[in-house]
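User: Structure with S-adenosylmethionine, tokens only please.
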Amino acid sequence: MNLHPQDFLLFVDVLRRESGLVLDPGQEYLLKSRLMPVADRHGVDNLEGIAREIRMGSPDMLRDVVEAMSTHETSFFRDLLPFRQLQDKVLPALMRTRDDKALRIWSAGCASGQEAYSLAMLLHDMGIAHQGWKYDILATDISHQVLEKAKAARYTAFEAQRGVPAPTLLRHFTRMDEQWAVKPHIRDAVKFRQLNLLDGAGHLGRFDLILCRNVLIYFDAATRLSVLSDLRSCLNRDGVLLLGAAETPPAEAAGLKLLDGVMGGYVRGGGE
Ligand SMILES: C[S@@+](CC[C@H](N)C(=O)[O-])C[C@H]1O[C@@H](n2cnc3c(N)ncnc32)[C@H](O)[C@@H]1O
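Assistant:
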């Protein structure tokens, strides 16, 4: 069944408004493949039925549509290079300028938690707690569903082994039947919280390091700029924002400048 153009436009509007996701003409197939399971769960026949419920104002349907259309692809130590850069350059530089020996870190758009737990493993293995350092890692996502998985901290063998070297796996995970559970010393270092980046983040306070990787790529230019400006205002004066290496954000317009020698790294530009 072809999707009625009016229904397609409804999905385009709703997704842009609710999560910033941009859906282009020709992506009807994506709606179909992602939303048919939602239709089944809600007992409606097709996308037309979903659109009807959204028009009638069903908050459950709206939430499920936003969740299903978001891409939650992630992995432990994803892309590896950013974590090497953090260990070798970014974290040592931050630590040189902090007399209070405290770091606040935010994984924005954390999906099912692998990025935040990778940070916790990295910091643990750098041994900075033994040098008197304290760190808080906050991890947020728009999706309740992925946050439940993140908090449960259990991963399939494929998810756990993908990107985690065997010694790290044995140090920080416990095998439980078919799954791998993150050990408490890593799990307890991360706090998860639901947050839509479109709603602003000023109330979270300031951070020394923000990772927002592979999130802005789904937004249109205006949304990208406004979220970036917001992230900038959440950075401490010399704090670092790390985006995905292949992302080309409107950094200057958002008051950010590239951090020399750190791929995907940005710091606050001039002005307040
Ligand atoms: C592709 S994943 C990236 C996960 C992780 N940062 C990484 O790079 O591996 C993108 C995540 O951004 C979240 N997201 C999308 N729109 C969002 C929004 N408006 N506010 C907060 N999170 C959002 C999605 O739910 C998804 O879990």
